[in-house]
Amino acid sequence: MKIKTKLNAGVGLLFFMIILLSVLGGWFIYQLKKDTQNILVANYNTLQYSRNMLLSLEEIDRQPFAMKEFQKNLNLQSQNITESGEKEATRNIISHFSDLNKDRNDENLKSVIRKDITELMQLNMNAIQIKSGIANTTAENAIAVISIAGTLCFLIAFTLMVNLPSNIANPIRELTFSIHQIAKQNYRERVRFEGNSEFGELAKSFNTMAEKLQEYSESRLDKILKGKKRIETLIDNMHDAVIGIDEDRKVLFVNDEALKISGLKKEQFVGKLIQDVAVGNDLVRDLIREIIDPQLQKKTEPELLKIFVEGKENYFEKEILDINVLPTGEDSKRFIGQVIMLRNVTPFKELDLAKTHFMGTVSHEFKTPISSIQMGVQLLENDRIGNLNDEQQKLVVGIKEDTLRLLKITGELLNLTQLETGVVQLNIRPSEISKMVESVIAANQSAADNKQISIKFKINKNVDLVNADYEKTSWVLSNIVSNAIRYSYENSMIEINVEKKEDQIKFSVKDHGYGIEEQYLDKVFTRYFRIPGTKADGTGLGLSISKEFIEAQGGEISVQSEIGEGSTFYFSLKA
Ligand code: ADP
After folding, report:
1. For the HAMP domain, which residue ranges apply (predicted)?
2. What is the dotted CATH code of the domain comprising 238-344?
3. Is 171 in the pocket of ligand 1 (CB under 6 A)?
4. Does the model's pTM come out above 0.70?
């Protein structure tokens, strides 16, 4: 039933009951009034007339108006006949009174009349008694009926009072609770109102809404799960090993490649603390070095990890990524874990090795013919073989310069292949410094002469020997001097200085050339780097090879320079 109908029915019933009670009360009061009025009109008046007639009768012989009074009351009584027998009694009085009219002093007649009047009075008194009984019964009936009706009304009103408010309040309470549940994302919540009241319709709409929300949330969850599966498959099928850990270093996921190279099973990884896994696995221990000691990360340069996988040498590049997310409604990012990636660079490494071997073979094969060209050119210059005209002389000089350049390049490439394959063999022994410096100057003299550059050298008296590989150190010094010549203006000067500082021998080569911009000072020692705009020929390898040669001998190399003023290259080795 609709709430409106229910309210209407409840209030209407109460209204009807009020009317019923009022009508019943009114009707009974009317009945009682009628009963008492009957007594008053029908009997009380008769008694009054009878009394008056009795009084008049007493004075009828003395007072002339008593006769009239009697007649008047008798007339009134004749018109007020209400009880059975009253008519006869009144008629008796009338006939006896007419007899008395003839003789007013007839005492016998008077007493007969008195008797008649008494009988009339008796008749009416009896009627009063009966009517009073009727009125009593009416009052008792009224009390009974009104009590029953009142009790009934009370019961109905009480039932309405108990049921009607809860009929409205209960569904509202249940609905409020369900709305709270939906707000807490509990989309399985449903309301169960029965009937076809407005609440029933509300419940139906609410349940449809909850069902749709549930469907939506489940489809969203399904989407997220599918997305997660996709990413997991992607990570699993990567050729790079991937390990994910949370902020407490507990392993969240690990892909197949990581399992393959570590030789561990998934159960031995996932859900465990990575440092606990590292205890029994050398590779994992190596991987998490930087995570355990963050200082290491800053110090060490990324190095290649050589790992044997399925009997084959594989090279991996390690990378550790921090995962920081910006939580909704917050300003700062929060650290939620790390991903350790081992990028498989074996194919690149193989290509690099092939390139190194190729470079090594080619430069080695080139060296012998170039050397014989150099010898041939030197022979051509010799007067004993024959005189050359000016043009031929110029050509020979050009060939000589090109040959030198080719020899320099092949030398650098050979050194580079040695460094890359790790087969640099150092022959460290006490080496004579003056001999080394002099031979370097001699080797570069013709290039210096071409630009009218003079080379000066100063070797401190207390310095004669250096504990170094003579060949490699000569090569480094020669490379620095040749750079100094190439990057200097004509008619300038180069100073070579060798001095002892504590237990170190410090070589320095100062030129007055173009100088190097501050931003490039660090970079000149990296492979294949040439300052942008450099015109002179070169490969960008000389200084990087020099650095590696010096560092392999436990020494240090550095540069100071001012643009336009010149540069000074230093390297120091053990005395
Ligand atoms: P390159 O074969 O190009 O000389 P290097 O490794 O010897 O290779 O030198 C790297 C770069 O450093 C050069 O290309 C040049 O730009 C710069 N450089 C080296 N020495 C000097 C110097 N004495 N004065 C100015 N620039 C220099």
Report:
1. 166-218
2. 3.30.450.20
3. no
4. no
